[in-house]
Specification:
Strand content: under 5%
Oligomer: single chain
Shape: globular
Order of helices and strands: HHHHHHHHHH
Number of strands: 0
């Protein structure tokens, strides 16, 4: 991994972990706790790909395992987030773009469900039956709901930061350059699932270019008519 990726990922994961432990973990919400660390791993994996996603997921999971008040074996959540980061990076489009916001939203849902099932499965292998007492169905529902509600406020922002730090040309296009497709990060930041800022700018530029071409054609036509009249007079 590049140095800028390591620094940015480490900073974002650290901030997410502190917020999750000190704020989200103390809200006493029913069922699961909103997993800000998971959303950070998902957002970075959507930008960096499966290899970096797996490495970031492992490091983020290991920090979560060691952070108080951890009540499970170290390495358990590291394995879960490593797999999630790898799988999320595999579904990243080749050009780094989603056609609509449904792509990352479904990715967040799948990551929330998959992480909960993997965590419960690994716990069952090591003899941890806490998920059975709480209720696996309730954990799945609340984890998916909380992460999905939190995703629009975190995932596009993290993706935009990652692309900017990466000097990704898509980040420049999202800020006003010639659009080549739809960018989910700029679309979510612009208003949920609209994803129309780039297309509107491109449409205005196309209209301006067509207007100039039409005016040039009319001028040439007028000059041609005047030339024909002058020839006839001669």
């Amino acid at each position: 991994m590049r140095i800028n990726r390591i620094l940015l990922a480490g900073s974002l994961v650290s901030v997410a972990l502190v917020l999750q432990v000190t704020v989200l973990g103390r809200l006493q919400l029913p069922g699961a706790v909103p997993d800000l660390v998971l959303l950070t791993v998902v957002a970075l994996a959507l930008v960096y790909g499966h290899v970096s996603g797996a490495l970031i997921g492992f490091a983020a999971g290991l920090l979560t395992d060691l952070a108080p008040p951890a009540d499970h074996a170290a390495g358990r959540y590291a394995l879960v987030l490593c797999l999630i980061g790898y799988l999320v990076g595999l579904v990243r489009p080749d050009n780094g773009r989603f056609r609509s916001a449904w792509g990352p939203m479904l990715t967040v849902v799948a990551a929330a469900i998959g992480s909960t099932l993997l965590y419960a499965g690994v716990g069952a292998l090591v003899g941890d039956t806490a998920a059975r007492h709480v209720g696996l169905v309730g954990l799945l529902f609340t984890a998916t709901l909380y992460d999905l509600l939190l995703a629009p406020f975190t995932v596009p922002f993290i993706m935009a930061l990652a692309r900017k730090a990466e000097n990704d040309p898509m980040a420049v296009e999202a800020n006003g350059g010639p659009p080549q497709g739809k960018d989910v990060a700029s679309g979510w930041l612009a208003g949920g699932t609209g994803l129309r800022i780039g297309s509107q700018r491109g449409g205005l530029r196309m209209m301006t270019a067509r207007g100039r071409a039409n005016r040039a054609g009319r001028i040439k036509g007028v000059k041609g008519v005047k030339g024909v009249k002058s020839v006839r007079k001669l």
